[in-house]
Amino acid sequence: MGKVQVKVAEVDRQFEAVLIANRGEIALRIQRACQELGLKTVTICSEADRDASYGKSSDVFLCIGPSSAGKSYLNQDAILLAARLSGAGAIHPGYGFLSENAAFAEAVKKAGLVFIGPDARSIATMGDKISAKSAMMAAGVPCVPGPDTALPDDRDAVEKTASEIGYPVIIKAAGGGGGRGMRVVTEADSLHEAIALTREEARQAFGSPALYMEKFLQRPRHIEIQVLCDTHGNAVWLGHRDCSMQRRHQKVVEEAPAPGIPPEPIRQVGEACVEACRQIGYHGVGTFEFLYEDGAFYFIEMNTRLQVEHPVTEMTTGLDIVQAQIKVAQGRALDIGQSEIKSDGHSFECRINAEDPATFMPSAGVITALELPNGPGIRVDTHVQTGYKVSPYYDSLIAKLIVHAATRTEAMAKMRDALADIRLDGISTNIPFLRALFEDHEFARGETDIHYLEKWLKQRSAS
Ligand code: MV4
User: Rounded CA gap, 102 and 118, in Å?
Assistant: First the structure.
């Protein structure tokens, strides 16, 4: 059965030009991966991004709409029209915007184009956090205690579920994710009110009132596993990352590997992730998000896109994840097996944001001077240069500073030096705050939990 199907899949999936449906550093990152694979690029932009430097390095650069993302980067019809007019055979959605929109993935396929990502069905399964949990439980991935079904309306039944799990519990919206639509309940007295409030928010925000309940873990770390899967049933995991250093669900620093995790438990979880991918017919790149507490892993969500922090995994594995993602989208079989995947040394990524250091509000303006660090083990992913105008329309990420060294301690020192070498004038950024964070002793020791950064910021502003 295999051979004929493989051929059909490969013929179906040929393309010579890729439309990049994104902006900023990731548009440039994808453009480079395409060029290295001999593919032409069609980059779209909004009016605000007309002068972007990466327009010049794209084979085609098309303005598809006004600055507001809803009218440009989220405008599915305009993007599909741009693909048709330019002759692009595939669409890379990057991260954010339409990257996890199942309807868009389906529309791309219906238009006869390749969506560089998983099937619409996989995106939809993972987009619904209840169906995601149920698929993972069925595949043997360890999940947070709690049912993989929607909470019923019956008051006695939900009380019973909560007491079986044990307080504190967390109520989450099936349509939520990334920190939206959830509420912690510490005692039985407040259970029904919490459910009612979360249900109403879910109805408003996600158009679905479906909720589920889990044990609330109080001081976990956020560990994620990167996977890469082809359309022939091959799947590998590319090690793990620690993304616990976050503020209001925005990651600030990521690292690979996650420090202090024993090899055997993580290997078991990694194998469970790739087995789950095979079971659900997942293809493309993906990330399994886990909470890690007291030596145990608990699945919470799966991201079906290329992630902002993919570079730390590229640095430790030596693989080009974006190239690999494009190759599996072309229908090519993975040319690397699990036994060939290594993890060398340690990598950190700092997200450099144009934001006010005190209020964290996005700060727009012109970059009047820019000097970036360089040297062995230093990588900067950015689309900005001197004279670049940071626009207020999009998220505040302007650059990612990534370092790699033999050990975590050396990688931290390299990041300190690299941060010291940046000169960026004209706008406010979080660089001063990143410099201070890399002087912190607790962080240097490693294994800080998801609440550490917010506590650290509170102490800092108090003193
Ligand atoms: C949790 C949790 C504790 N217990 N689930 C927040 C974002 C979304 N991905 C899931 N989140 C959480 N789910 C249980 N059962 C704590 C969080 C959480 C969190 C998770 C990862 C990274 C940062 C976080 C910050 C606050 C809360």
Answer: 9
Looking at the structure, tell me whether residues 167 and 302 fall in a common domain: no
82: number of Cβ within 10 Å? 22
Q: Is 301 near ligand 1, meaning CB less than 6 Å away?
A: yes
Please indicate, yes or no, whether residues 340 and 441 belong to a single structural domain of this protein. yes
Residues 239, 85: Cα–Cα separation, whole Å: 40
Please give the average per-residue pLDDT across 285-293, as a whole number.
Answer: 98
CB of 185 closer than 6 A to ligand 1?
no
Q: Does 291 share its domain with 440?
A: yes
- Looking at 185, 215, 245, which one is the last position of a domain? 215
Q: Give me the CATH number covering residue 166.
A: 3.30.1490.20
pLDDT band at 359 (very low <50, low <70, confident <90, very high): confident
Distance in Å, CA 19 to ligand 1 centroid: 34
Residue 319 pLDDT more than 60? Answer: yes
How far is Cα 233 from Cα 336, in angstroms, rounded to an integer? 13
pLDDT of residue 11: 56
Evaluate whether residue 130 is within a structural domain.
Answer: no
- Cα–Cα distance for residue pair 143/148, rounded to 1 Å: 9
Tell me the pLDDT tens digit for each residue of 82-103: 999 999 999 999 999 999 999 9
DSSP 48: G
Strand partners for 43: 20, 61
426 φψ region: left (φ > 0), alpha (ψ -120 to 50), beta (else): left
Backbone φ and ψ for 185, nearest 5 degrees, come out as: -120, 120
Ligand 1 geometric centre to CA of 245 (Å) = 12
Active site residue 278: no
Residue 132 in any domain: the answer is no
- The reply to whether 59 and 175 lie within a common domain is no
22: in domain: yes
Q: What CATH number should be reported for the domain holding residue 36? A: 3.40.50.20
d(CA 77, CA 240): 37
One domain for residues 267 and 314: yes
Is 50 close to ligand 1, i.e. is its CB under 6 Å away? Answer: no
Mind listing the pLDDT tens digit for each residue in 3-40? Answer: 455 554 555 689 999 999 999 999 999 999 999 999 99
Q: Are 79 and 92 in contact (CB under 8 A)?
A: no
| DSSP codes, 256-310 | ESPTT--HHHHHHHHHHHHHHHHHHT--EEEEEEEEEETTEEEEEEEE-S--TTH
Look up the domain containing 313 and give its range.
Answer: 221-462
Q: Is residue 177 part of a domain?
A: yes
What pLDDT, on a 0 to 100 scale, did the predictor assign at position 113?
98
What tens digit of pLDDT does each residue of 121-131 get?
999 999 999 99
H/E element holding 312? helix 310-317
How many separate domains does the chain show?
A: 3
